[in-house]
Queue: 2 jobs
Job 1
Amino acid sequence: MAAAERWYRRHAALVRITHWINVVCFTLLLMSGLQIFNAHPALYVGERSDFDHPTISIRAHLSENGLVGETAIVGHSFDTTGVLGVSSENGQVSSRAFPSWITIPSSQDLATGRRWHFFFAWLLVLNALIYLVWGIASRHFGRDFLPSRVELGHIGRAVREHLRLRFPRGEAAKRYNVLQQFAYLMVVFVLFPLMILTGLTMSPGIDSALPQLLTLFGGRQTARLVHFAAASGLALFVIVHVVMVLVSGVWNNLRSMVTGWYDLGEPRTTDVR
Amino acid sequence: MSGDRLHRRGLLKALAAVGGLALSGCDRVASEPRLRSVLDAANSLTYKVQRLLIGAGRLAPEYSEADISPAFRGNGSTDPQDEEYLNLADNHFADWRLKIHGLVEHELSLSLQEVRTLPARTQITRHDCVEGWSCIAKWTGPPLAELLSRAGVKSEARFVVFHCADTLDDGGDSGADPESIRYYESIDLIDAEHPQTILAYEMNGEPLTVRHGAPLRLRLERQLGYKMAKYIMRIELVRSVTELHGGRGGYWEDRGYEWYAGI
């Protein structure tokens, strides 16, 4: 029965629920995190802050043309007026590292930013634990995330097809392709664990219980730098992920992440033969 | 597939609209008191979990002389202009006395010289500001536990309150009279009796400067900088902090920050 084979149950209920909780948590954590970053918009390597030599900093200074936003990365400065360092807030030019439209709350308010950040951090961690335990117990990770030898051999072809925005249909669409597998492995097993561990390393309370974390990351300020870098990595993933969702059949993708059902397409004659 | 494209454009517009609504809504939602109490639940959870993990005795990491920051940033007030304080500083704190009172068996009143003769602890620790930066310094002073045992803490006491000499300029948003916004902080007895909780009169081997809280400041190494009261005048043992100014247990706590600052 071709009609029955057309619909494929792509995502388990637990994946769908934890995915959307994660969307909410990550969005709010990113925005409240940038609010927290704005309180001291400079990152350092080591245990302590070497205020004169930040690795990354976003500052504002006054020039003859008015306020200038300046982003410096290991000594290289860029004029980022309008977005980073200096941006408009309620129609007024304001010196702030990240602009008001991307922070929670929009105005400078570290206390509220922290309150939101820690609440959604707890929610994210609990959500992630449920997802991890289920993913291991159901063999979701082993079955769907680990590329087979054949899939590994097709990396070149997968990259070429992605660049031409051609995506698998039919039987081949049932599995994550090898690029998806790499991206999801990276997000689930590298970037999110890094976020959580570096976040904990910044806590003076946790540092007294687990000083090994400081050794692992090379100090509290390095942990803060890695926290920022890993968050940037996740933000980059989200951008690519959303673009891929949009160009590879947005309704089909959204439906499968809401109801679970994915449309494999009309069976072609070659498929039924 | 123009239909698909139309859908796509419609979806993007819808997403942008929802996003915009969410952004403008966030600020209104963020200041909603009922939501605040829900979000605050996360902080109580953090407090309970950290208390379980670090208990009463786990020490904050200590560092070597080589790790000491060449330039230690001052947190909070760095140059109090309160007349009472300026008079004390003019006289090198010879007239300053540390008062310990409230729920204690015997009130204490100690001169700086008397504080300096108490058994002291020296520690090189990292100071983490709530803003995100860290500095390292060497601190010397008597453990708070030493003073508390001399005063004799009554069994009903639960918190140690620090009353300070400095009026911190918070941008004038509190509307309170200046007397009531002299800095104040509170900690629980678990932290008060922690071996690294000291009242420092020396920083990096030198007498504490005005910038860093002279003549006496608190070091509370498992929490953030704003807990570490500077310019201490009185230490009061209380049953609850609800009577203290805004009722949340500290100057910054009454301005939205968490009372437990272990994170």
Job 2
Amino acid sequence: MLREVERGLALPIPERVRILRELEFDLEELCARLVAGGLSEELARGRAVQALVPDRATLRELDRLHAPWYRRVTQHVTEDRLRLAERSALAIATASVVVVQTVTLFRFDLLRDPSPFLWPVLGLGALLFATVVTQFFNLWIKGDHRIPAQGLSTILVLAGATVLTGFGGMIFDLYRLAGTLEKAPDLADAVAGAWLLRDLTLLSISILLALGGGLAWFLLDQWLRLVDRARSDVLGLKITYPPKRRTTRWSS
Amino acid sequence: MTEKDFDVQGFARDINELLILSTLRSQAKHGYQIALDVETDSNGLFRFRHGTLYPILHRLEAEGLIRGSWSKGGGRRKKVYSLTGTGRGHLSGETHRVHEIMSRLMQVLGHRDEAPA
């Protein structure tokens, strides 16, 4: 019965769980009180359900009352326009962050002559930022819990790619430095220090971006686990997050 | 002093809210207790069905007339509602208004009864 009620609520999971917990307790207690008052269990259950379980109209009223502010504000906007507006806002936000980041970085003398690998690292960082913002937006602003699991893996992949690109770039640059110094050892004093500093900066930036992505992933993951556990607990369902990987059985 | 325009549908909703607020006057209660007390106190005349209690409770909570708080007991989480100071003031004011409306209604009905055949 609680599962049916849950299916009728178009609300973010935390809101649904709160409503269902309240209903669950009240149903049990009212049923117990009616039984203690002399009714049979079946009758008591029927009376309790009739009194407390919301019908469709009541579920719609609950949806209206508890809808996220974003949904209330955008309810008169068509789906296509809303999607376009969201994507445009995300593109503008990402572009702004990239511009501000680049301008800020170039204020430092360290990056006057950056490693060529800094650009793919910053590009991956921008993608990482866009993915993290999308996930936070979906979960906390729109209250949409349907898709986040896929987006979370993407965050980890991008964070990993960022640090690997930084690390790989550093190794490649060091290899080039070694080659240069082999051909012209007298350049060692002039070139080596600056080159090493440049590559350490590249590595630091890639690690920082990856750490930021990792932290965002951790927060989102923990939140989803909490929400899923609460939902499974109140509905008596198995925990569905994180999704179990399918394992291949090899027949002997 | 201007009077509020009388709206029948709004009045029905106000009655539901007043019933809930009045049961919370004496002590904090769970949702099921509120439903039970309203039915018992009115000898079955007023009865909440199909979960209509919950949107009203949540709306009153959002308006600050009641306060909902969660507690844990027996391994279960439960929500209990209590009347706020604002809720007490609202209850008092609206009870007076309902009194006025019912008095005027009885006045009209009383005049109709006296009208010649």
